[in-house]
Amino acid sequence: MAFSRLRRALGRAALRDRDYRFLFEPAPVDEAVSIDCETTGLNRRKDDIVAVAAIKIRGRRILASERIEIVVRPQTRMNPEAIKTHRLREADVAGGRAIAEALPELLRFIGGRPLVGYYLDFDVAMLDKHVRRLIGVALPNPRIEVSALYYRLKYGDAPPGVQVDLSFSNLIADLDLPMLDRHDAYSDALMTAMIFLALSERMRRGARIARRGGGNAHHFSVS
């Protein structure tokens, strides 16, 4: 905790554009942002963003009406394997916004809220390449990784040799949540928000996830 505060203080001091001090301000109480990026490939250094979506979460509610969806014109060529995954062709993103134009809007939407994601480090790394150019520092937002929460609730007390499945489809099925269209940035952000709230509810109740899986009730709303 002390290290985190120190890192944020150093980041705020190194901020190139003081208009972005809001990123270091406390988030509204009980709010977070679920975020997902689609990219030209999986190489953090060479690939780029083609779409990003973010949705606000407040308490036990997913605020689907408070969201941002951006198609981005990438600075690198699309990997054919990536096209098979997210079905966005170069022609589909050619009319997208430049990331330098879209990023300020995204940052103001996020503010100082914690970021919620599935394998979030990759998405943040892809964003940070551009964020550093814009403001001089990386995103300072706290991160909440849903696969880590799921692991803690299901496998945290598992004996050696237990098979671990942290796939997105398994999390959705195990928590009895609806599977939407995968690898669409908005759908993935929405499903990730659902996973987060389902896991948060279990954590509030002190309930674990049975390793036999399936059939877990959830109580939250999407509005």
The 3D shape can be described as: globular
Total number of helices: 8
CATH architecture of the largest domain: 2-Layer Sandwich
Order of helices and strands: HEEEHHHEHEHHHE
Q: What's the pLDDT, averaged over the residues? A: 88
Helix fraction by DSSP (H/I, runs of at least 4):
40-55%
CATH topology of the largest domain: Nucleotidyltransferase, domain 5
* Beta content: 15-25%
Question: Can you summarize the main beta sheet?
Answer: 6 strands, mixed
Number of strands: 6
Task: Compute the separation of the termini in Å.
Answer: 33 Å
Structural class call reads: alpha/beta
Low-confidence stretches: none
Domain module tally: 2
CATH homologous superfamily placement of the largest domain: Ribonuclease H-like superfamily/Ribonuclease H
Query: Which sequence of strands runs across the widest sheet?
Result: 5-4-1-2-3-6
Q: Any overview of this molecule?
A:
The chain is an alpha/beta fold. The protein has 2 domains: 16-144, Ribonuclease H-like superfamily/Ribonuclease H (Nucleotidyltransferase, domain 5, 2-Layer Sandwich); 145-222, no CATH class. 40% of the residues lie in helices and 17% in strands. It has helices at 2-14, 80-86, 90-93, 99-110, 120-135, 146-155, 168-174, 185-205, and strands spanning 31-39, 49-58, 61-71, 115-117, 143-145, 221-222. The chain has a 6-stranded mixed β-sheet. β2 (49-58) and β3 (61-71) form a beta hairpin. α6 (146-155) runs parallel beside α8. The longest helix is centred in the C-terminal third of the chain and has 21 residues, at 185-205. The protein is globular. The relative contact order is 0.17. The mean pLDDT is 88.
